[in-house]
Write a structure and sequence with these properties.
The structure holds two protein chains of two kinds. Chain A is α+β, with helices and mostly antiparallel strands. Chain A contains eight helices and seven strands, in the order H-H-H-H-H-H-H-H-E-E-E-E-E-E-E. Chain A has helices at residues 2-35, 39-52, 57-69, 73-86, 91-102, 116-123, 129-152, 156-188; strands at 192-195, 200-203, 212-216, 221-227, 231-235, 241-245, 249-251. Chain A has a five-stranded antiparallel sheet with strand order 6-5-4-1-7. In chain A, strand 5 (231-235) and strand 6 form a beta hairpin. In chain A, helix 4 packs antiparallel against helix 5 (91-102) and helix 7 packs antiparallel against helix 8. The longest helix of chain A is centred in the N-terminal third of the chain and has 34 residues, at 2-35. Chain A is globular and about 75 Å long. The mean pLDDT of chain A is 85. By secondary structure, chain B is an alpha+beta fold. In chain B, 26% of the residues lie in helices and 38% in strands. In chain B, the strands form eight sheets. In chain B, strands 22, 24, 25, 26, 27, 29 and 30 form a seven-stranded mixed sheet that branches. In chain B, strands 11, 13, 15, 16 and 17 form a five-stranded antiparallel sheet that branches. Chain B has a four-stranded antiparallel sheet with strand order 1-3-6-5, with no helix packed on it. In chain B, helix 7 (522-541) packs antiparallel against helix 9 (564-580) and helix 9 (564-580) packs antiparallel against helix 10 (587-609). The N and C termini of chain B lie far apart (181 Å). The relative contact order of chain B is 0.06. Classes of the chains: A alpha+beta, B alpha+beta. Chains A and B meet through helix 1, helix 3, helix 5, helix 7 and helix 8 of A and strand 28, helix 3 and helix 4 of B.
């Protein structure tokens, strides 16, 4: 029985490792293709990798940059924006995004609203969401240990100190948990859209037969206000509000 | 024999009565008897719109004119009647009694035949010409000499054409009678003049208007007479008008006829003094006849998205004169459509350039030639000037041009290659957020390469899984377990120090609370302390006496098994209390004495219990 368990565990572990290695090989292939200016292959490989590891800012950055070299406005802006969302303040992504925005056929001016979660995210981004979760577990364990120490201690001063420490650790643990929740929740929810195609129409109502508010160009960015199964209500940079069909946009 | 004739007559009469009301086909001739040189007009008149007219054979006649159709409607007292007639001009070939056979028509699925007519043809008669003869100027000797010369010439060919003046045809030729909307067709009006005919002047009575057509006249510098064949005969041909037409709507469109009046020459039949036949002039109107064109609409179901109405067969090209240049240098982008079709009416697709390239309005160059053979042919070009403003690599999206191919009857789309323009030198593009100075600094940098170092995340957030909550909250479950275990073990161990502390505190609270309040107030404190100790003894040892001397206390305590040490402590505290009334005491001493009293009480209490 024990042998079987050991075997099973080692199998799982080796499988995970081999998957990781496989990804590493693919990643290097993508890098090589990019360096040999075979952007189409590079895009294909990074696209596969992004499907496996969808919240990796490096992969999104690489994919967006490859799209940029292929002059694909919409997708390049989308992936670079996504990379910046995952890792705010990632300079190369910001630079390349500026280049990608040059490809747009129309200049759009104006600012979009910033979701609250985003500010919290950038404040606490010095640790990854999972690190915050581990911190929550660790500080909870410590807090309990310190509380036990308090129970066993005889000295009144030591008791006071240990009790205070325990309460502090408990607060840290609960705080880290909520931070981790915020970080992952922010990354998993969509706040903006990038228009995928040219000549996408913005409707006044979420119906195919509706008054057309305006026509959008590829690469336009907009803020999500509301979402249904097929439609999404967006606010443009010029504060126009309307509905677009979901399959015409990329959400992040 | 008679009965048979009678029957025929009766039957003929009967049928004629029967058909009178509905339909009649009659043969009318201009005269029953005529000379051999004369022309006879034969009219077949019917009283309804009959089809499938079959003319008689005219065996002994030669048809010199016609068939000419005329239709007349009349409304009398609310009744409509209609008359349709077909007329021929015929000339007899021989003398004698000649018969014109019967013509037949089909009216309401019935065949009607006309009565045969007999004509008496006699010797040639002299006919007065209707037009005046050419006036002769008695003084123009040269004219006469010229005419004389011509007559001589004619006399060398004694075989005179019999029907001079017959043989002018006005014909409209249309290149196609069934076309698509916007497909160019050509129409050519021409006059065929046989060698036996001639005319002096021409007068256009009615010009076609080409309604529902976009028309373009083909101008000819010079009208040239050529030879052409019509119905197997050779004619002189004079083109009158040529036009390229583009039908603008679908359906059956009618092109109005061209009508001209000719002053034509004909032989009067007379012979002048020199023996040459005389020429007369008469006016006659010719019509080309209306033409109908069947125009088919373009199929809508497979129409490409950006179809701009081109019909024909085309080539499409987009070219830039350079692909690598400096900022602010002009670049020429030419969009060209070349081919056959409605070049005048089509619109070229407009290139879309990134906003960093300034695109100016195009210069339009049309080289379209219209001809009868090809319709409309040539090139249509739009030249755009592009001035890049900033450094970088830009792509001009591929342009698509769609047209309806009339040969394959389908839409065709040509997509040009996308053009990449490299601007090697020039200022950098300002970013969208000029307020952000950081971004501007960044934009001066090169495009960033890929990031080679990857940290795999393989993405699941552990807070998303239930096991996280188990790990996170499990330590809290540990707490009550540990605390309870500790309490149990404490009870088992008896916990001396802990219990002692607890009881002494209780006792002190019970008996010494009064004293504690007075700490710092020397006299009151010691009085209270002494009273408290007395009260304690009274309570614990159940002593009734109010006065307690040192000896009594010692005795009582030792009786209760209290050890000597505690007894002496008790006594020393009692002495201190009495002394304190006269001595100086500070707070520290009071606190010490209080603590001592607490310890003492708890110690005594324990011993009493045993």
């Amino acid at each position: 029985m024990k042998q079987l368990l050991v075997f099973f565990l080692s199998f799982c572990f080796s499988y995970a490792v081999s998957a990781q290695e496989n990804n590493e090989v693919l990643f290097n292939k993508g890098m090589d293709a990019f360096n040999q200016k075979d952007y189409a292959t590079s895009v294909k490989i990074f696209n596969d990798l992004v499907k496996i590891d969808s919240l990796n800012s490096v992969l999104h950055y690489n994919l967006g940059t490859a799209y940029l070299h292929m002059q694909n406005t919409g997708l390049s802006i989308y992936h670079l924006e996504k990379s910046l969302k995952l890792q705010p303040g990632y300079e190369p992504a910001r630079i390349n995004l500026n280049f990608a925005e040059k490809l747009k056929t129309k200049v759009t001016k104006g600012n979009l609203p910033i979701p609250q979660q985003q500010m919290l995210y950038s404040v606490f981004n010095f640790l990854k969401p999972n690190s915050w979760a581990y911190l929550a577990i660790g500080s909870m364990v410590l807090s309990v240990l310190v509380l036990i120490g308090y129970r066993f201690s005889q000295n009144a001063t030591a008791k006071k100190l240990l009790f205070a420490t325990s309460i502090f650790l408990l607060i840290v643990s609960i705080g880290s948990y909520f931070i981790s929740e915020n970080q992952s929740g922010y990354l998993l929810s969509n706040h903006y859209v990038i228009i995928k195609d040219t000549d996408v129409v913005l409707m006044q109502e979420p119906r195919t037969v509706s008054k057309i508010t305006s026509t959008l160009t590829e690469g336009d960015k907009a803020f999500i206000k509301e979402e249904t199964n097929q439609w999404v209500k967006i606010q443009l940079q010029n504060d126009t509000i309307g509905w677009v069909e979901k399959n015409n946009v990329l959400m992040y | 024999m008679y009965t048979k004739y009678f029957t025929y007559t009766f039957l003929a009469f009967f049928t004629s009565i029967a058909t009178w009301a509905q339909f009649q086909l009659k043969t009318q001739v201009s005269s029953q008897s005529m000379g051999i040189n004369q022309v006879l007009e034969v009219r077949f008149v019917m009283t309804g719109d009959a089809d499938d007219f079959k003319r008689p054979a005219f065996e002994n006649f030669e048809v010199v004119g016609g068939p000419m159709q005329s239709i007349s409607h009349s409304w009398v007292n609310g009744k409509t009647s209609m008359e349709k007639s077909v007329s021929f001009f015929v000339q007899p070939k021989k003398k004698g009694t000649l018969t014109i056979g019967s013509a037949s028509v089909v009216f309401e699925d019935k065949v009607y035949k006309s009565q045969p007519v007999t004509i008496q043809v006699g010797d040639a008669v002299q006919e007065q010409p209707r037009q005046q003869q050419r006036r002769r100027d008695p003084f123009s000797i040269f004219d006469e000499m010229e005419e004389e010369f011509f007559r001589r010439q004619r006399q060398q060919h004694p075989q005179l054409p019999k029907n001079m003046g017959e043989g002018i045809h006005l014909v409209a030729k249309v290149s196609k009678s069934s076309v698509y909307v916007n497909e160019p067709i050509t129409i050519e009006y021409g006059l065929y003049v046989s060698d036996r005919a001639g005319f002096n002047t021409m007068n256009v009575k009615q010009m076609p208007k080409y309604e529902n057509f976009w028309n373009h006249m083909i101008e000819e510098k010079q009208m040239q007479v050529t030879r052409a064949e019509l119905n197997g005969k050779s004619y002189r041909y004079l083109p009158l008008q040529k036009a390229v037409l583009l039908p603008q709507k679908d359906g059956t469109l009618r092109i109005d006829p061209l009508e001209i009046e000719l002053e034509e020459q004909y032989f009067t039949g007379n012979v002048d003094v020199f023996g040459a036949p005389e020429l007369g002039l008469r006016k006659k109107t010719y019509s080309s006849g209306a033409k109908t064109i069947l125009v088919k609409p373009l199929p809508l179901d497979k129409q490409p998205e950006r179809y701009t109405g081109a019909v024909g067969s085309f080539n499409f090209k987009v070219q830039a004169n350079k692909t690598s240049l400096k900022a602010n240098e002009p670049l020429e982008l030419t969009v060209t459509v070349q081919g056959k079709g409605n070049l005048d009416l089509l619109t070229l697709p407009k290139p879309v350039a990134p906003n960093a390239l300034e695109l100016y309005d195009p210069e339009k160059i049309n080289k379209v030639s219209k001809s009868i053979s090809a319709g409309m042919e040539g090139t249509k070009t739009e030249k755009y000037v592009i001035v890049p403003q900033y450094k970088g690599t830009y792509t001009i999206e591929p342009l698509t041009f769609s047209y309806f191919d009339t040969a394959s009857k389908s839409y065709k789309t040509i997509t040009s290659d996308s053009l990449t323009i490299e601007v090697t030198e020039g200022p950098e593009l300002p970013t969208n957020t000029p307020a952000n100075t950081k971004a501007e600094v960044v934009s001066k940098q090169e495009m960033q390469p890929l990031n080679g170092s990857i940290e795999w995340f393989n993405g699941k957030f552990i807070t998303q899984s239930k096991s996280f909550y188990a790990w996170w909250l499990a330590p809290l479950l540990l707490l009550p377990i540990v605390f309870m275990a500790k309490n149990v073990s404490d009870k088992k161990a008896g916990d001396i120090t802990g219990n002692k502390l607890k009881t002494s505190n209780k006792l002190a609270k019970k008996y010494l609370s009064e004293a504690k309040k007075q700490i710092g107030n020397k006299e009151a404190f010691y009085e209270a302390l002494e009273r408290c100790l007395h009260n304690y003894l009274k309570a614990r040892l159940k002593i009734e006496t109010s006065e307690l001397s040192n000896d009594t206390i010692t005795k009582l305590l030792s009786d209760n098994g209290i050890n000597q040490e505690d007894i002496s402590t008790f006594l020393s505290i009692k002495t201190t209390c009495e002394m304190a009334r006269y001595a100086q005491m500070d707070i520290q001493t009071m606190q010490n004495d209080y603590d001592l009293a607490v310890q003492l009480i708890s110690s005594i209490d324990k011993q009493i219990k045993k």
